[in-house]
Amino acid sequence: MSKLQFSVKIVKILPQLSQQPGFVLARSSGQPAILLLPALSPFPGTYLMSNPAPILSRQDLVPPIVLTFAGSDPSGGAGLQADIMTLSSMGCHPLSVVTAITVQDSAGVEDVLAIDANWVSDQARALLEDMPVAAFKIGLLGSVENIAAIAEILSDYPQIPLILDPVLSTGRGDELANEKMIVALSELLLPQTTILTPNSLEARRLAQDDDIEDDDPDLAECARRLIDSGAEYVLVTGTHETTPKVTNTLYREGGTVRADSWERLPGSYHGSGCTLASAIAANLANGLDIEDAVRDAQEYTWQALANGFRPGMGQYLPDRFFWAREAEQDDVQA
Fold first, then answer.
1. Ramachandran sector of residue 246 (left: φ over 0; alpha: ψ -120 to 50; beta: rest)
2. How many independent structural domains does the chain possess?
3. Which residue, 18, 35, 56, sits at the end of a domain?
4. What is the per-residue pLDDT across 77-100, written as a single tens digit (0 to 9) for each?
Protein backbone atom coordinates (compact mmCIF):
# COMPACT_ATOMS: atom_id res chain seq x y z
CA MET A 1 0.00 0.00 0.00
CA SER A 2 1.47 3.34 -0.98
CA LYS A 3 1.89 6.03 1.61
CA LEU A 4 1.46 9.75 1.16
CA GLN A 5 3.44 12.32 3.15
CA PHE A 6 1.54 15.02 4.99
CA SER A 7 2.86 17.91 7.07
CA VAL A 8 0.81 18.14 10.26
CA LYS A 9 0.50 20.62 13.05
CA ILE A 10 -0.61 19.19 16.38
CA VAL A 11 -3.39 21.25 17.95
CA LYS A 12 -4.46 21.42 21.58
CA ILE A 13 -7.86 19.87 22.14
CA LEU A 14 -10.12 19.72 25.17
CA PRO A 15 -10.19 16.37 26.98
CA GLN A 16 -13.80 15.81 25.94
CA LEU A 17 -12.66 15.91 22.30
CA SER A 18 -9.99 13.22 22.77
CA GLN A 19 -10.78 10.24 20.59
CA GLN A 20 -8.58 7.42 21.90
CA PRO A 21 -5.84 7.07 24.54
CA GLY A 22 -2.40 7.54 23.00
CA PHE A 23 -3.65 9.63 20.10
CA VAL A 24 -3.89 13.35 19.39
CA LEU A 25 -5.89 15.42 16.97
CA ALA A 26 -3.89 17.15 14.24
CA ARG A 27 -4.58 19.42 11.29
CA SER A 28 -2.75 18.52 8.08
CA SER A 29 -1.55 21.14 5.65
CA GLY A 30 -3.86 21.39 2.68
CA GLN A 31 -6.77 19.73 4.46
CA PRO A 32 -9.47 21.72 6.27
CA ALA A 33 -10.36 18.89 8.63
CA ILE A 34 -8.83 17.26 11.70
CA LEU A 35 -6.95 13.95 11.64
CA LEU A 36 -6.33 11.34 14.32
CA LEU A 37 -2.60 10.63 14.72
CA PRO A 38 -0.45 8.70 17.22
CA ALA A 39 0.61 10.86 20.16
CA LEU A 40 4.29 10.40 19.25
CA SER A 41 3.86 12.23 15.96
CA PRO A 42 6.35 15.10 15.53
CA PHE A 43 5.19 18.45 16.89
CA PRO A 44 5.06 20.20 14.50
CA GLY A 45 6.51 18.17 11.69
CA THR A 46 5.91 15.56 9.03
CA TYR A 47 4.03 12.35 9.59
CA LEU A 48 3.67 9.51 7.07
CA MET A 49 0.21 8.06 6.72
CA SER A 50 -1.81 6.51 3.91
CA ASN A 51 -5.15 7.81 2.68
CA PRO A 52 -5.98 9.91 5.73
CA ALA A 53 -9.68 10.33 6.39
CA PRO A 54 -10.80 13.46 8.20
CA ILE A 55 -12.61 12.64 11.41
CA LEU A 56 -13.77 16.11 12.43
CA SER A 57 -14.57 19.22 10.47
CA ARG A 58 -13.61 22.62 11.81
CA GLN A 59 -17.25 23.22 12.62
CA ASP A 60 -17.15 20.20 14.93
CA LEU A 61 -14.27 21.55 17.02
CA VAL A 62 -15.62 23.27 20.12
CA PRO A 63 -13.35 25.71 21.98
CA PRO A 64 -13.04 25.28 25.74
CA ILE A 65 -16.16 26.58 27.46
CA VAL A 66 -15.96 28.63 30.66
CA LEU A 67 -18.98 29.71 32.69
CA THR A 68 -18.63 32.95 34.62
CA PHE A 69 -20.92 34.22 37.39
CA ALA A 70 -20.48 37.99 37.68
CA GLY A 71 -22.10 41.40 37.82
CA SER A 72 -22.55 43.50 34.71
CA ASP A 73 -20.20 46.47 34.37
CA PRO A 74 -21.56 48.86 31.72
CA SER A 75 -18.14 50.54 31.44
CA GLY A 76 -16.63 47.31 30.11
CA GLY A 77 -13.75 47.61 32.53
CA ALA A 78 -14.55 44.86 34.99
CA GLY A 79 -17.20 42.29 35.82
CA LEU A 80 -19.00 40.17 33.26
CA GLN A 81 -17.74 42.22 30.33
CA ALA A 82 -14.12 41.85 31.44
CA ASP A 83 -14.57 38.11 31.86
CA ILE A 84 -16.10 37.69 28.42
CA MET A 85 -13.33 39.67 26.71
CA THR A 86 -10.55 37.86 28.56
CA LEU A 87 -11.96 34.39 27.94
CA SER A 88 -12.56 35.17 24.27
CA SER A 89 -9.08 36.64 23.88
CA MET A 90 -7.58 33.43 25.27
CA GLY A 91 -9.43 31.10 22.94
CA CYS A 92 -12.39 30.10 25.09
CA HIS A 93 -16.12 30.35 24.55
CA PRO A 94 -17.58 32.31 27.49
CA LEU A 95 -20.94 31.54 29.06
CA SER A 96 -22.24 34.20 31.43
CA VAL A 97 -24.64 34.27 34.34
CA VAL A 98 -25.60 37.76 35.51
CA THR A 99 -25.57 38.04 39.32
CA ALA A 100 -26.09 41.81 39.55
CA ILE A 101 -26.48 44.91 37.45
CA THR A 102 -24.57 48.02 38.40
CA VAL A 103 -24.49 51.75 37.86
CA GLN A 104 -20.83 52.53 37.33
CA ASP A 105 -18.29 54.18 35.09
CA SER A 106 -14.50 54.09 34.90
CA ALA A 107 -14.27 56.05 38.17
CA GLY A 108 -16.33 53.80 40.45
CA VAL A 109 -19.58 52.06 41.35
CA GLU A 110 -22.62 54.15 42.21
CA ASP A 111 -25.19 51.40 42.83
CA VAL A 112 -25.67 47.63 42.69
CA LEU A 113 -28.89 45.69 42.13
CA ALA A 114 -28.61 41.97 42.86
CA ILE A 115 -30.46 39.64 40.50
CA ASP A 116 -33.05 37.37 42.11
CA ALA A 117 -31.37 34.10 43.17
CA ASN A 118 -33.91 32.00 41.26
CA TRP A 119 -32.99 33.84 38.09
CA VAL A 120 -29.30 33.26 38.77
CA SER A 121 -29.95 29.55 39.29
CA ASP A 122 -32.16 29.27 36.19
CA GLN A 123 -29.57 31.00 34.00
CA ALA A 124 -26.87 28.59 35.08
CA ARG A 125 -28.96 25.42 34.93
CA ALA A 126 -30.14 26.19 31.40
CA LEU A 127 -26.55 26.56 30.19
CA LEU A 128 -25.16 23.57 32.07
CA GLU A 129 -27.85 21.28 30.71
CA ASP A 130 -26.92 22.34 27.19
CA MET A 131 -23.12 22.67 27.01
CA PRO A 132 -20.07 20.99 28.62
CA VAL A 133 -18.15 23.45 30.82
CA ALA A 134 -14.40 23.12 31.39
CA ALA A 135 -14.06 25.72 34.18
CA PHE A 136 -16.10 28.02 36.41
CA LYS A 137 -15.16 31.58 37.32
CA ILE A 138 -16.91 33.64 40.00
CA GLY A 139 -16.76 37.39 40.54
CA LEU A 140 -19.30 39.78 42.09
CA LEU A 141 -22.01 37.74 43.80
CA GLY A 142 -24.58 40.35 44.75
CA SER A 143 -26.31 38.70 47.72
CA VAL A 144 -26.22 35.90 50.28
CA GLU A 145 -29.05 34.22 48.39
CA ASN A 146 -27.00 34.24 45.19
CA ILE A 147 -24.06 32.70 47.01
CA ALA A 148 -26.26 29.87 48.29
CA ALA A 149 -27.78 29.27 44.85
CA ILE A 150 -24.40 29.20 43.11
CA ALA A 151 -22.89 26.94 45.76
CA GLU A 152 -25.72 24.46 45.27
CA ILE A 153 -25.17 24.42 41.50
CA LEU A 154 -21.39 23.99 41.80
CA SER A 155 -21.81 21.07 44.18
CA ASP A 156 -23.22 19.11 41.24
CA TYR A 157 -19.96 19.60 39.29
CA PRO A 158 -17.13 18.86 41.74
CA GLN A 159 -14.77 17.74 38.96
CA ILE A 160 -14.80 21.14 37.23
CA PRO A 161 -12.20 23.66 38.49
CA LEU A 162 -13.55 26.79 40.17
CA ILE A 163 -11.67 30.08 40.16
CA LEU A 164 -13.08 32.47 42.76
CA ASP A 165 -12.26 36.17 42.59
CA PRO A 166 -13.65 37.51 45.89
CA VAL A 167 -14.95 40.91 44.81
CA LEU A 168 -15.44 42.63 48.16
CA SER A 169 -14.95 46.27 47.14
CA THR A 170 -13.90 48.39 44.19
CA GLY A 171 -10.45 49.88 43.75
CA ARG A 172 -11.94 53.17 44.91
CA GLY A 173 -13.21 51.51 48.08
CA ASP A 174 -16.90 51.13 47.21
CA GLU A 175 -18.33 48.29 49.34
CA LEU A 176 -19.59 45.32 47.31
CA ALA A 177 -19.94 42.60 49.98
CA ASN A 178 -21.21 42.86 53.55
CA GLU A 179 -20.18 40.66 56.46
CA LYS A 180 -23.03 38.18 55.95
CA MET A 181 -21.92 37.68 52.36
CA ILE A 182 -18.33 37.11 53.45
CA VAL A 183 -19.46 34.46 55.93
CA ALA A 184 -21.58 32.75 53.28
CA LEU A 185 -18.73 32.87 50.76
CA SER A 186 -16.33 31.36 53.29
CA GLU A 187 -18.69 28.59 54.35
CA LEU A 188 -20.32 27.68 51.02
CA LEU A 189 -17.89 28.54 48.23
CA LEU A 190 -14.37 28.27 49.65
CA PRO A 191 -14.69 24.51 50.23
CA GLN A 192 -15.44 24.10 46.51
CA THR A 193 -12.72 26.48 45.27
CA THR A 194 -9.75 25.35 43.21
CA ILE A 195 -8.01 28.74 43.17
CA LEU A 196 -8.94 31.79 45.24
CA THR A 197 -7.48 35.05 43.85
CA PRO A 198 -7.74 37.79 46.51
CA ASN A 199 -5.65 40.93 46.55
CA SER A 200 -3.85 41.54 49.82
CA LEU A 201 -6.71 43.61 51.27
CA GLU A 202 -9.28 40.94 50.42
CA ALA A 203 -7.05 38.18 51.79
CA ARG A 204 -6.75 39.96 55.15
CA ARG A 205 -10.48 40.62 55.32
CA LEU A 206 -11.45 37.05 54.41
CA ALA A 207 -8.95 35.56 56.87
CA GLN A 208 -9.77 37.86 59.78
CA ASP A 209 -10.47 35.90 62.98
CA ASP A 210 -12.84 37.83 65.22
CA ASP A 211 -12.01 35.54 68.13
CA ILE A 212 -8.41 36.77 68.16
CA GLU A 213 -7.91 40.18 69.74
CA ASP A 214 -6.05 42.63 67.50
CA ASP A 215 -5.74 39.94 64.83
CA ASP A 216 -3.24 41.07 62.18
CA PRO A 217 -2.01 38.04 60.23
CA ASP A 218 0.64 38.35 57.54
CA LEU A 219 -0.29 37.30 54.01
CA ALA A 220 1.19 33.81 54.35
CA GLU A 221 -0.94 33.22 57.44
CA CYS A 222 -3.99 34.61 55.62
CA ALA A 223 -3.41 32.12 52.82
CA ARG A 224 -2.98 29.28 55.30
CA ARG A 225 -6.31 30.12 56.97
CA LEU A 226 -8.11 30.32 53.63
CA ILE A 227 -6.70 26.96 52.60
CA ASP A 228 -7.80 25.54 55.96
CA SER A 229 -11.28 26.88 55.07
CA GLY A 230 -11.31 24.71 51.96
CA ALA A 231 -9.59 26.49 49.06
CA GLU A 232 -7.12 24.22 47.28
CA TYR A 233 -4.88 27.09 46.17
CA VAL A 234 -4.72 30.77 47.09
CA LEU A 235 -3.08 33.34 44.80
CA VAL A 236 -2.54 36.55 46.79
CA THR A 237 -1.83 39.51 44.51
CA GLY A 238 0.36 42.39 45.64
CA THR A 239 -1.09 45.30 43.72
CA HIS A 240 -2.27 47.02 46.91
CA GLU A 241 1.06 46.65 48.73
CA THR A 242 3.74 49.35 48.79
CA THR A 243 6.57 47.19 47.44
CA PRO A 244 8.63 48.47 44.46
CA LYS A 245 7.43 45.52 42.39
CA VAL A 246 4.10 43.72 42.44
CA THR A 247 4.63 40.25 43.87
CA ASN A 248 1.92 37.64 43.45
CA THR A 249 2.29 34.52 45.58
CA LEU A 250 0.61 31.17 45.03
CA TYR A 251 0.00 29.03 48.12
CA ARG A 252 -1.34 25.58 48.75
CA GLU A 253 -1.38 23.27 51.76
CA GLY A 254 2.20 23.10 52.96
CA GLY A 255 3.21 26.62 51.97
CA THR A 256 4.34 28.64 48.96
CA VAL A 257 4.16 27.11 45.50
CA ARG A 258 5.61 30.04 43.57
CA ALA A 259 6.07 33.81 43.78
CA ASP A 260 6.22 36.04 40.68
CA SER A 261 7.29 39.68 40.63
CA TRP A 262 6.17 42.19 38.04
CA GLU A 263 7.05 45.77 37.23
CA ARG A 264 4.65 48.08 39.04
CA LEU A 265 2.88 50.10 36.37
CA PRO A 266 1.92 53.74 36.93
CA GLY A 267 -1.71 54.71 37.24
CA SER A 268 -4.79 52.96 38.57
CA TYR A 269 -6.57 50.16 36.72
CA HIS A 270 -10.19 49.02 36.67
CA GLY A 271 -10.69 45.27 36.16
CA SER A 272 -7.23 43.83 36.75
CA GLY A 273 -8.52 41.22 39.23
CA CYS A 274 -11.31 40.08 36.90
CA THR A 275 -8.80 39.78 34.07
CA LEU A 276 -6.36 37.69 36.11
CA ALA A 277 -8.99 35.29 37.46
CA SER A 278 -10.59 34.83 34.03
CA ALA A 279 -7.18 34.25 32.45
CA ILE A 280 -6.47 31.50 34.99
CA ALA A 281 -9.85 29.93 34.21
CA ALA A 282 -9.10 30.08 30.49
CA ASN A 283 -5.71 28.44 30.96
CA LEU A 284 -7.16 25.64 33.06
CA ALA A 285 -9.90 25.11 30.49
CA ASN A 286 -7.20 24.89 27.84
CA GLY A 287 -5.52 22.07 29.74
CA LEU A 288 -2.66 23.77 31.60
CA ASP A 289 -1.75 22.59 35.08
CA ILE A 290 -2.23 24.92 38.05
CA GLU A 291 1.26 26.41 38.18
CA ASP A 292 1.52 27.05 34.45
CA ALA A 293 -2.03 28.40 34.35
CA VAL A 294 -1.24 30.91 37.10
CA ARG A 295 2.10 31.94 35.62
CA ASP A 296 0.79 32.42 32.08
CA ALA A 297 -2.31 34.27 33.34
CA GLN A 298 -0.10 36.76 35.16
CA GLU A 299 1.90 37.38 32.00
CA TYR A 300 -1.30 37.94 30.01
CA THR A 301 -2.72 40.28 32.66
CA TRP A 302 0.47 42.33 32.93
CA GLN A 303 0.55 42.77 29.15
CA ALA A 304 -3.12 43.78 29.14
CA LEU A 305 -2.41 46.38 31.83
CA ALA A 306 0.80 47.63 30.19
CA ASN A 307 -1.22 48.22 27.01
CA GLY A 308 -4.14 49.72 28.93
CA PHE A 309 -6.01 52.85 27.92
CA ARG A 310 -8.03 55.59 29.66
CA PRO A 311 -11.31 56.05 27.80
CA GLY A 312 -12.99 58.24 30.42
CA MET A 313 -12.21 60.44 33.40
CA GLY A 314 -11.50 57.58 35.79
CA GLN A 315 -9.16 54.60 35.84
CA TYR A 316 -7.27 52.93 33.04
CA LEU A 317 -8.83 49.80 31.53
CA PRO A 318 -6.81 46.71 30.53
CA ASP A 319 -6.57 46.04 26.81
CA ARG A 320 -7.48 42.35 26.70
CA PHE A 321 -6.91 42.23 22.96
CA PHE A 322 -3.48 43.87 23.06
CA TRP A 323 -2.07 41.07 20.90
CA ALA A 324 -4.48 41.88 18.08
CA ARG A 325 -3.53 45.55 18.09
CA GLU A 326 0.16 44.67 18.21
CA ALA A 327 -0.34 42.55 15.10
CA GLU A 328 -2.13 45.44 13.39
CA GLN A 329 0.75 47.78 14.24
CA ASP A 330 3.27 45.29 12.90
CA ASP A 331 1.30 45.04 9.65
CA VAL A 332 1.21 48.82 9.32
CA GLN A 333 4.95 49.13 9.96
CA ALA A 334 5.67 46.36 7.47
1. beta
2. 2
3. 56
4. 999 999 999 999 999 999 999 999
